[in-house]
Amino acid sequence: SPRMASDSPESLMTLCTDFCLRNLEGTLCYLLDNETLRLHPDIFLPSEICDKLVNEYVELVKTDSIFEPHESFFTLFSDPRSTRLARIHLREQIVQDQDLEAIRKQDLVELYLTNCEKLTAKSLQTLVSFSHTLISLSLFGCCNIFYEEENPGGCEDDCLVNPTRQVLVKDFTFEGFSRLRFLNLGRLIEGVNVETLLRPLASLAALDLSGIQLNDVGFLTQWKDTLVSLVLYNMDLSEEHIQVIAQLRKLRHLDISRDHLSSYYKFKLTRRVLNLFVENLVNLSSLDISGHTMLENCTIPSMEEKMGQTSIEPAKSSIAPFRGLKRPLQFLGLFETSLCRLTHIPAYKVSGDKNEEQVLNAIEAYTEHRPEITSRAINLLFDIARIERCSQLLRALQLVITALKCHKDDKNIQVTGSAALFYLTNSEYRMEQSVKLRRQVIQVVLNGMESYQEVTVQRNCCLTLCNFSIPEELEFQYRRVNELLLNILNQSRQDESIQRIAVHLCNALVCQVDNDHKEAVGKMGFVMTMLKLIQKKLADKTCDQVMEFSWSALWNITDETPDNCEMFLNYSGMKLFLECLKEFPEKQELHRNMLGLLGNVAEVKELRPQLMTSQFISVFSNLLESKADGIEVSYNACGVLSHIMFDGPEAWGICEPHREEVVKRMWAAIQSWDINSRRNINYRSFEPILRLLPQGISPVSQHWATWALYNLVSVYPDKYCPLLIKEGGIPLLKDMIRMASARQETKEMAR
């Protein structure tokens, strides 16, 4: 099968960058005075490496909860003689004034600051130090960068209440930024005079003024010979705006789209406006008019439409004004407009809501700067994935992952994105997904669970995890998944459905894994959490899936793990066992799970004395006659007693019931079982059974162990014969056949 793009391994550069960032002290740096990171003096790194280190660092801090940010990280790049930076992309709360200040000596060519809300006017001053080299600058969403803190003079009492006041900086301009060509001022704070700010720039090629209200944009004509890209998203336009735009004849990309939900717009698009653009902007290859209401009908009557296959030829366009285009547009944004549903649209790529292709184009185009639009596009994708079948699965997954990573704190995107992931990872799409891609899904799902205590996100994330093979596919994040699930189960108020899915996942995670995993999870409070859930269900007198899964999870986590068995006893597990037995005498599944767990406890010699009470021994003896779940409950009860008998008569510290009487009942129980019974049990090791063979102190325990082995190897030979041989069972059986104390029927079975 052809290799998927997402399947290719990470480049060596990426792997090394990641390793160095996670181990700065062991690789590029040392710690000065136990706190400040310093670069080793013999290190010299070019911009190709330094840019990647900085950009990956920002990505890791944002998307990897285990990654610890370093206070002094940016100081590593303070000296251009040892580390060169050229193109860096910084985002959100990760970056503060002092970080930018630390790299002020660098000759930056490209600096993207996206939603860096902690940056203040101090950083404006730092920008000046890059003015002679900067070609590309984005200050998108840096809402405080034009504010400085002003200390009021003469500190009166007021000083304590309001020690600093935010004051808008009015005198900053791009004076001296002689090479600046690309500028994004999206979501700039009100009150800054854009015209004055930009006037010194000689030759702007691209300008983004998203979300800024300007009544007069006449000043844009000063770049009519150089401006190739203009973005005025969410600007309320007027006839004056349109006339100015029509003069910018070099434009290749024009975006006048809007979010039709955000506020009331007076402006309506007309056929005349589109005609004006087509006639005047002859180089246009990309146009976005998403969210606009068309004032009049711009469509060609369907009778006149050229029939046949859909065409991107301008001459056949269903949108009348676009028949005047010289060639099809590379991109046409029609998201949330009626035009996207027409037959012939003269563009190679269209964003809209008509079909999967248009919806994916929308997610791709708007993710970075327009989460409000992206969440609605992902919602449409969710419907497509749920109702129809996705034909571009890998692209869809990749786009949703990117959106979830990019907007970790945006509730709408987390809700719609996590829901879409559930449908995009289910089994019918499984074959098309690489390990790498599925791991990326798991990472963003866990990020969502971490950042959002919101019920819908938690439920979607838990459901998505159920689409994976557990524990195998979650092994690489084992600790983290368990911590998150236990966290959900420890919340005081709980949503029933989430509780059920989370317990199911916990149970699956501790099934069939190594003992060190089980011990680690036990130390996280797993046993305590399950017992609390059981306690709650018992108080409500309900025996539902949560109750059964909780006991099943305890059965799994105590398997050959003495520490967890001890925890079970210390946290009054036996009391809960007796209460559940009494409250739910008919629940067979429950009985099987509880006795499986007690079988694990009984295997631990040091803990057996705690089971040695009249009450417990009577309960186990009575369960020998149980017909619940075939032979399982009776078999497990007999297993518990076999281990107790193996400690010999001197360990029998109770008067009632008598040891001989219990032994008699055990023989009777074993003889009543069908040797060909199919089993509801899974052994990873025979060690606890095999240790009951080479002894003469309790022939009945020897018989139970032999019966167990005989049944398993005869009903499931492929699975259990190799295990018996591997663990040295054959010589033990041979020796037992020669033992005088062993019963005749036991020897027959062993033979």
TrEMBL record:
Keyword set, alphabetical order: Acetylation, Leucine-rich repeat, Repeat, Ubl conjugation pathway
Domain (Protein zer-1 homolog-like C-terminal): residue spans on this chain: 404-750
InterPro entries referenced in this protein's UniProt entry, alphabetically: ARM-like, ARM-type_fold, Armadillo, LRR_dom_sf, LRR_Zer-1, ZER1-like_C, Zyg-11_UBL_adapter
One GO CC annotation: Cul2-RING ubiquitin ligase complex
Chain ranges of the Zer-1-like leucine-rich repeats region domain: 196-337
Pfam families associated with the record: LRR_Zer-1, ZER1-like_2nd
Self-association and partners: Interacts with the ELOC-ELOB/Elongin BC complex. Part of an E3 ubiquitin ligase complex including ZER1, CUL2 and Elongin BC.
Family of the protein in this entry: Belongs to the zyg-11 family.
Name by which UniProt lists this protein: Protein zer-1 homolog
Native source species: Tachuris rubrigastra
Gene behind this protein: Zer1
